[in-house]
Amino acid sequence: MSMGRRLRDLLGRKKFLITPGITTPLHAMIVEKAGFDFVYVGGYDVSLTLLGLPDVGLITETEMLNNARNIARSVNLPVIADTDTGYGNAINVIRTVQDFEAAGLAAIHIEDQMSPKRCGHVAGKILIPLDEAVGKLQAALDARKDKDFMIIARTDAVAATDGGLDEAVRRGKAFARIGCDVIWAEFPSADIEYPKRFAQEMRLEFPDVPLYLNYSANLKWHESKAKFEDFAEMGYRIMHVSLAGLRATMQATWDYAVDLKARGAQAEIDFQKRLMGHPMGAFHEFAGFPRMKELETKYLPDEEVKKKYDGAVGL
Q: pTM of whole model > 0.85?
């Protein structure tokens, strides 16, 4: 079963799907171990992590693809990847779809911003014309070899200077009309009326098309106290918490670095104590060293394995 098929089956069986947005294979492996159903790889996350640059369209298809391929290889879960604007026009989108499908992913999303794009939650977004956006998405749909590979159509119209909620609905319906598998609208604030109204308008014409929600780190959901279940009732069947792996990593690394600078070796000693018994404490096992030893024992000459391990210190 392809990963696209697995993702579709999950959508058919569960009321909604939720996952923390991640950046690296390590993050993806943790997400899998924690019991989530799919992996989401964000462009902001990868741009800042790999390039040290903000999400303003600077990351290339090759950089994003290589990272996504490594993530898909590291887990046995469907992976959805952010492919920004598809890295060009409709012709570029054809290659993007073919490359990400061949890399083993389950789905990608393509947005309707002009290139170079900007993060959906910062100022300065400009939309491409609707007919151009439809053409790009039609090219994406036609480029698939496996029709289960999912094309998620995203519109940034709500917060664009040349858009608004009505324009987002118009675009969402146009994208659903040509057969896009999932429709995603970015929202500019934690005002629950935005996703509610968008979903209501979409469901009037397309009651069965799943909607996607970015439970964005940039929005103050703690003020609205909106829960995943609330959005699922509206029709949002797939969701991710944006920048989750990135933010957790940034906070933990910052706190550790500040503590190490202030207290020296004692900070590391205390950190080691806190890791004892933690699922991430046995990081050699998590990384897969025992499995490597099993494979060496299976495939390498006995004398070579004996030489490597007899009397060796470690696993």
A: yes
